[in-house]
Amino acid sequence: MTLVLSQLFTGISIGAVLLLIALGLSLTFGQMNVINMAHGEFIMAGAYTVYVLQQVITSAGASLIVALPIAFAVAGAMGVLLEFLLIRRLYGRPLDTLLVTWGVALILQQAARDIFGAPNVQTRAPDLLTGSIHLPGGLVIASSRVFILVLALTAVAALTLVLKTTSLGRRIRAVVQNRDLAAVSGLATGRVDRLTFFIGSGLAGIAGVALTLIGPIGPAMGTNIIVNAFLVVVVGGIGQLKGTVIVAFALGILQSMVEYTTTVSVASVIVFIVIVAFLQWRPQGLFTLRTRSLA
Amino acid sequence: MSGLTVRDLRVVFDGFVAVDGVDLEVPAGDVRFVIGPNGAGKTTLIDAITGLVRATGSVTFDDHALLGRKVHRIARLGVGRTFQTAAVFEELTVLQNLDIAAGWSRHPLSLLRARGQVPSSVAEALTTVGLSAVRDELAGTLAHGQKQWLEIGMLLVQDAKLLLLDEPVAGMSQSERDATGDLLGRLAADRTVLVIEHDMDFLRRFARTVTVMHAGKVLSEGTVAEVQADPRVQEVYLGHAPSASEVA
Amino acid sequence: MTAVASPPVAPPIKPSRKRTGWKTAAGFASGAVALFALAPAALDDFRLGLLAKYLCLAIIAVGIGLAWGRGGMLTLGQGVFFGLGGYAMAMHLKLADAGAGNLPDFMQLYGQLDALPWWWRPFANPVFALVATVALPMLVALLLGQLIFRRRVRGAYFAILSQALAAAMAIFLVGQQGTTGGTNGLTDIQGFFGYDLNDPVNRKMIYFIIAGALLLMLAVAWQLMRSRYGELLVAVRDAEERVRFLGYDPANVKLVAYVVAAGMAGLAGALFVPAVGIISPALVGVVPSIEFVVGVAVGGRASLIGPALGAVAVAWARTALSERVPSAWTYFEGLLFILPIVFLPGGLASLPRLLRKARK
């Protein structure tokens, strides 16, 4: 029982990381249909923000708290720059966006190598987050994992609030549902796009801060995690926040359970097969926006 | 050939009833016009017949039940359609567009060969729709009216027995409309034609029978004169004005 | 597409087609001269070996050009098919190197196995192995394509799914240390069907085989592109839903191009192994798979020769640049993904037409 529970929690914490990463994608890919392969490098930028801040701020706890808004701003600014310089020219060509942003990712990775060096760097985690929490029944949970889970859920709540209640959220949803109509109605779609991209990329920065608590920080960290995060958005359904949330956790739990019963190696194939099987049932993802468009 | 029969057709989008129990009988060789205000469910009717949207009820053409079949299976039963905004393959030439329309019945292996000469059905259609002069132009470079003609030409080589035309003369000049109307009359000789159209002048000249739809239901049906005399039609279209002369 | 008899279309060829036919023949002839006469004469053994490797990448690129340029399927998982072909070939060559009844060297080294795994055994047969290099990737593509094209998973969804497959394949291979060599892959291959790969003469023979295979694959792609099927493929790419209303199932149309592209990648993998002497997870994962695409984009995705030339040019640039300034290569590669796609979506192959247009 304890074993199952602890696997379950492992799965949930994998899911929380996936969710943090996929959340930004569900905005930029899900809402704007832009496949930003450099999203992983924005995560990396968020992680390096912690590293740089810790050169200045010695307290690990303070640096972490300061890092959250700064990483959001740094990654967000990178996203806006990317949107303004390249993606703007590629609307309606989503596959080309994918390749172009992969090129951007390569450049950012190499820049990180040239600035911070190729080896991974370490950051210090605050004492509060290095220990573990002992639950009744012998269950032991790393407190950093709990922190990430809380952070992910907070980010979901905040994003939902922004989308549902603010005028920016209304404008974002209007542009998603009918870009032409929104433009005709006097919405500055360009500005809305840039803001959407700012938030989506900023969330990558937050994810980067969180990742410093559980793993090394290096130039290649983005590539490894981005593929699964995109899967989460695809399987969750385009433009659907709740799909992203559910699928992130489902995929995390599935992965941890399969890895536990087999090996990491076999699990990677099984998870892929499960996803293809799932798409037989729901080819447009878990939740879909039904429209009458055609041909 | 026994024409098109639609019984109690219903299409529901997320709770919105777009087509609400439509019954329709279009005998073989008829040129039926379907009119009605925007949102009456006309295009959805065609979508349901061609398998694009899910519907309940029954649709029979030529003794084949259509509902529940896949789009390409329905097309193979001789059901062809055009679209409100002409949908042609813009990166291919006019000839290639027509040749593809002729092709689903070709043996798969024969597809692996290049086209040697122009198949006779394609050549015929080129002449019929008057696009012989531009046959090697990319379809994307055609004028709007020409694209609609190309779509009709594709229906011809496809050898569709039921033609479903969604606003075929929208944006056409008067002479183009006349030519299209004449063509429809000729096509109906051995086919069944159903046209969605807003243009009342065009309707009066070329429709044999008319169905008026409103809010997903059939409001009235009959000859042009009968339908025009129907007070319910006048009410839907014009509020209460008596003459249904120019309605868009 | 059911097999209903079609009206026989006799092949008297239009004059215009005859002219393009001549052009193509001339193109193939000059390609053959360049590959079979000029390159071996101009390049030393080492450079010719590099060119052999580049030509393998060009074979993959021809397939991607067909699937992506003509079919609109951006496949970011060609490494999987490349790997299947490569591993199938390498397994046979390792078994042949070890000699009958012996385990391949790496299996002895890791010492986890005392007998050959059952799924290795058929690869001892050269005919089975050769057929498998192409048939296995095609089979996997057929199965996967059936599942995803039928369900209308396409566009970005398809690209991401194909990328996830590449990721899964690489992780899987890394974990199977005992049976696939894990991270190292299958290395140190000595012989090729009885020919010693250390002998420069035999290495030259491998080059000629690869060059021949590339020309053959270009011919296959050329025929597919000019055929009625090729026209249909473009139609599906541009308006998949429209094609259904003409009685076609677009899934079948896409499947053919996808499976052929997979077969080409498998063939390339099989030829890569004797040319380079190694196949490993690092050659099949997400990164190499997307790198296969960049040459296609640079050369011109929808053209016949563009993808192959682009692939060779990019691979050559990589060697030339990373020999001198390794970090500069990555920046350059990044720009290769960005600049042509943003500013020249048709690739270099579209330059002549654009220039002609500009002059008018």
TrEMBL record, chain A:
Its main location: membrane. InterPro entries: ABC_transp_permease (IPR001851), ABC_UrtB_bac (IPR017779), BCAA_transport_permease (IPR052157). Coiled coil: none annotated. It holds the Pfam family BPD_transp_2. It is a multi-pass membrane protein. Keywords: Amino-acid transport, Cell membrane, Membrane, Transmembrane, Transmembrane helix, Transport. The chain crosses the membrane at residues 6-30, 42-58, 64-86, 138-163, 195-217, 229-253, 260-281. It is found in: Cell membrane. Belongs to the binding-protein-dependent transport system permease family. LivHM subfamily. This is Urea ABC transporter permease subunit UrtB. It comes from Paractinoplanes globisporus.
UniProtKB/TrEMBL annotation, chain B:
This is Urea ABC transporter ATP-binding protein UrtD. SUPFAM superfamilies: P-loop containing nucleoside triphosphate hydrolases. Gene3D superfamilies: P-loop containing nucleotide triphosphate hydrolases. Keywords: ATP-binding, Nucleotide-binding, Transport. It comes from the Bacteria. The keyword DNA-binding does not apply. SMART domains: AAA (SM00382). Residues 4-240 form the ABC transporter domain. CDD domains: ABC_Mj1267_LivG_branched. GO terms for molecular function: ATP binding.
From TrEMBL, chain C:
It is a multi-pass membrane protein. It is found in: Cell membrane. The gene is urtC. It comes from Paractinoplanes globisporus. Its main location: membrane. The keyword Transmembrane applies. This is Urea ABC transporter permease subunit UrtC. InterPro entries: ABC_transp_permease (IPR001851), ABC_transptr_urea_perm_UrtC (IPR017778), LivM-like (IPR043428). CDD domains: TM_PBP1_LivM_like (cd06581). The keyword Protein transport does not apply. The chain crosses the membrane at residues 24-43, 49-68, 80-103, 123-144, 156-175, 205-225, 255-280, 292-317, 329-351. PANTHER family: HIGH-AFFINITY BRANCHED-CHAIN AMINO ACID TRANSPORT SYSTEM PERMEASE, SLR1201 PROTEIN. Pfam families: BPD_transp_2. Keywords: Cell membrane, Membrane, Transmembrane, Transmembrane helix.
